Amino acid sequence: MKIDNERLHRALNPRSVVVVGDKGPQYMWLTNMENFTGELYSVQVDPNEIPGIEEKQIPNFSSVAEVPGDVDLVICAVPRQVTPIIVGQAIEKKVGGISMFTSGFAETGEPEAIELQEKIVSACLEDGMPLVGPNCMGVYNRELGVKFNAQQEQGAGSDVGVISQSGTHGIGISLGAQRLGIKVGRTISIGNAVVCNESDYLEYLIDDPASPIVVMYLEGVKEGRRFFEKLKELAAKKPTVIWRGGGTDAGARAAHSHTASLATDTAVWDGMIRQAGAIPTESLEDTLDVLTTLVHSPPCSGKGAALVAMTGGQSVAITDQFQRAGFDVPELTQDSYDVLGEFFVTIGGSYRNPFDAASTIRSETENLEKILEVLAEDDNIDAGVAIELTTAGFDKDPERLDAQLSLLAEYREKTNQPVVAMMPEGGAVSGQAEVVVSARARVSELGFPVYPSFRRGAEALARSQSYWHWRGVPSS
Questions:
Q1: Taking the C-alpha atoms of 422, 425, 430 and 435 in order, what is their torsion angle to the nearest 10 degrees?
Q2: pLDDT (tens digit, 9 = 90+) per residue, 147-179?
Q3: Which domains, ranges and CATH numbers included, belong to the chain?
Q4: Strand pairing partners for 419?
Q5: Contact yes or no for 219/258 (Cβ under 8 A)
Q6: How far apart, in whole angstroms, are the C-alpha atoms of residue 389 and residue 391?
Q7: Most buried among 38, 102, 382, 437, by the most CB within 10 A?
């Protein structure tokens, strides 16, 4: 039987949640759900655990069937041998869906574990019950306060939705994105994905308003053709980033023991991702890098980049990295050089592209304004500005950085082109690591992608620009 999408919607956006089998002293699931906006209940029969639940003033029952009213989501954290009982109770109660944290199923390779998984799968499919997992962290919903990690934010708005076969990577993407000023609207940790698989979630996210951008971590797919078709449909509508785990022989073995995923040939996988229009990444770092550019930059497919660095040596380094990433670093028009020449004569530095602008930005922010005014009118620049920002003195004069970012924001709004900031590690003053971290946080807070190296900034912007080119977005 096909999964009931209406019930899946209830499970991913629950108004009532029942946690089954939570244990003290932390009571992880109930504690994570303390700010849930709906009705929260517990099912626990162990007399040693019940007093701690009652101290939290959460109603506890001996079975799912006893919980009053409709139940949208059951979070199952019981030993694996008990799971068929809980699934049966959930089916009887007609709940929206089940999120199963319990592990120890087919990923173990044990015959009895495989048989047990087949038993719960059969029951769910017969009923049309959406099952998230097993062997997963389950469901995070930012707006409703449904969490599987205490650090996940709660509030309105969303920049991205996340699907992850790994609970650890689901948490890593969620929390990493938050630190970059990105609102994660939902994360679905899918684990073994034995009932609802990755294609079901893709189909759901196509029209999901909480997922304007989609990020996925996958170790394998169960329905290759359907996955390709849904991925292509999704990527044609929303930027879709896919980090694939298990792309090597050893990684594939690890993936199979992790979520029982079967490896896909690397050449086949790469071809599928390319044809579908998704954005491939190879690590958490890559994934967050491209995500922050997608969130904090307007759609743009241009190749002509304006580069601004702090010294002559850095101007060479930034140029190498952006050209390697596929960008042009063009000469400006003669009209632009005529204007720039009028004030660069007195301040020193280079006014070619790349700009060696140390004195320009360190001592006279108003000169940066003039440079950006010229670049905004130059037809040779259609991929935006990549700029090295100094962290020196940020602790004593943060207003200077704010003033520069204000000018860059005006440029971005006027041109509808990306602005990428870079604060390389090597540029930090000795003993000023905390200053660098604070300065980067400020840049993110004000809505700019910021990177610790030229290479990472160039590659992230290149991935974003390639996607928008595939979508047919014209250069600015």
A1: 50
A2: 999 999 999 999 999 999 999 999 999 999 999
A3: 1-133 (3.40.50.720), 136-296 (3.40.50.261), 298-470 (3.40.50.261)
A4: 385
A5: yes
A6: 7
A7: 102
- In 3D, which of 171, 203, 175 has the Cα closest to residue 188? 171
DSSP for 185-248, please give it.
Answer: EEEEE-TT-SSS-HHHHHHHHTT-TT-SSEEEEES--S-HHHHHHHHHHHHTTS-EEEEES--S
431: alpha, beta or left? (left if phi > 0; alpha if psi -120 to 50): left
Q: How confident is the model at residue 443 (pLDDT cuts 50, 70, 90)?
A: very high
Sign of CA dihedral 208, 170, 42, 96: positive
Rounded to whole angstroms, the Cα distance separating 64 from 71 reads 9
Give the model's pLDDT for residue 362: 44
Sorted by sequence, the CB contacts under 8 Å of residue 250 that are 6+ apart come out as: none
pLDDT at residue 418 above 80?
yes
Q: Around Cβ 402, how many Cβ atoms within 10 Å?
A: 14
* Contacts of residue 437, Cβ cutoff 8 Å, sequence gap at least 6: none
Average pLDDT of the chain? 91
According to DSSP, the residues that pair with 240 across neighbouring strands are: 214
The CA distance from 26 to 21, in Å, is 13
Residues 310 and 421: beta-carbon distance below 8 Å: no
DSSP, collapsed to helix, strand or coil, labels residue 418 as: coil
Chain position carrying tokens 């992850």: 164
Model confidence band, residue 434 (pLDDT cutoffs 50, 70, 90): confident
Start-to-end CA distance of the chain, whole Å, equals 49
Q: Is the pLDDT of residue 257 over 70?
A: no
pLDDT tens sequence across 454-466: 999 999 999 999 9
- The letter for the amino acid at 207 is D
Residue 134 scores a pLDDT above 50: yes
Mean pLDDT value of segment 397-401: 88
pLDDT at 425 over 80: no
Tokens 């199923």 locate to 105
CA dihedral 32, 33, 36, 40 (to 10 degrees): -170
